[in-house]
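To illustrate the input format used throughout this study, we show a single complete record. The first block contains the structure-token representation of the backbone; no residue identities are included at this stage. The design step must infer an amino acid for every position from geometry alone.
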């Protein structure tokens, strides 16, 4: 696997790469979830590119940009073992040289939930991903379902702007106790880590009610909240039952598929998770 840091080097590699190219954009500190995206890209494409870039424009002023975990050497080893051909790990100046101004204004799908709590977050995500697509020029790009709103935002951007990249959503990878893999799990203390299973437990409560025929969106949200409220170390930021494409909140009777999602604080660490409730 080659590791490059400049747009120019990626372009040179891309010109010589035959067949289809699958792309896995990441912010590094990789876990089994990222590895599963690379493996899927490996199966679907002739060549695989991954990027590691902690994108400053998607962090708010009070968020964790400075303390976001980084370990590029370890990431490189994991990517290589998963069958990645090229690692693009640019410095911030390469992505945002002096005078950089353009942004992608996403629209309504970016407004609620994460977008409401993290103003500017999806503008930063959409802008950097579109820029990475322009640099790598992949045929397909792979994103985890764990960031369900990010997936919906990127699908919308690609559709609205006719970007010739297929956005592929991949299943959330979980720890044996149900906690969704996330680089931010590394912030949790031992007690918080134990309590963090509450997200999956709350989502499973909604899933079980749904399987039992419950369709009242209020009842489904209440079932999730009840589990979260019973965990003293957890503080719910939001609990949602929404349309998975528009992220519009369901009112009254929910229709399938519905996205049950939540953001929860454990101490200073904010975790998100979701489950798709299908027919
Ligand atoms: O999901 C992430 O890690 C990031 O939001 C992404 C897509 C790599 C953009 O910086």
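Output of the design step:
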């Amino acid at each position: 696997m080659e590791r490059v840091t400049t747009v120019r080097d990626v372009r040179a590699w891309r010109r010589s790469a035959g067949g289809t190219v699958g792309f896995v954009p990441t912010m590094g500190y990789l876990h089994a979830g990222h590895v599963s995206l690379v493996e899927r890209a490996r199966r679907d494409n002739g060549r695989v590119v991954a990027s590691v870039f902690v994108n400053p424009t998607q962090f708010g002023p009070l968020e964790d940009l400075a303390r976001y975990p980084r370990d590029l050497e370890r990431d490189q080893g994991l990517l290589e073992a998963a069958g990645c051909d090229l690692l693009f790990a640019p410095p911030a100046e390469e992505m945002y040289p002096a005078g950089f101004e353009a942004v992608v204004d996403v629209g309504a799908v970016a407004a609620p939930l994460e977008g409401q709590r993290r103003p500017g977050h999806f503008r930063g995500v959409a802008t950097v991903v579109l820029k990475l697509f322009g640099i790598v020029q992949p045929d397909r790009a792979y994103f985890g379902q764990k960031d369900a709103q990010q997936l919906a935002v990127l699908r919308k951007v690609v559709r609205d702007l006719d970007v010739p990249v297929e956005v592929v959503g991949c299943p959330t990878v979980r720890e044996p106790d149900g906690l969704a893999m996330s680089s931010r799990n590394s912030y949790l203390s031992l007690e918080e880590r134990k309590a963090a299973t509450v997200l999956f437990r709350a989502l499973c409560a909604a899933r079980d009610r749904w399987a039992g025929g419950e369709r009242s969106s209020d009842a489904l949200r209440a079932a999730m909240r009840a589990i979260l409220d019973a965990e003293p170390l957890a503080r719910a930021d939001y609990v949602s039952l929404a349309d998975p494409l528009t992220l519009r909140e369901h009112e009254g009777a929910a229709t399938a598929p519905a996205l049950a999602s939540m953001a929860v604080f454990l101490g200073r660490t904010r975790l998100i998770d979701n489950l798709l409730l299908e027919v």
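Structural context for interpreting the output: Residues 121-136 form the longest helix (16 residues). The two ends are 42 Å apart (CA to CA).
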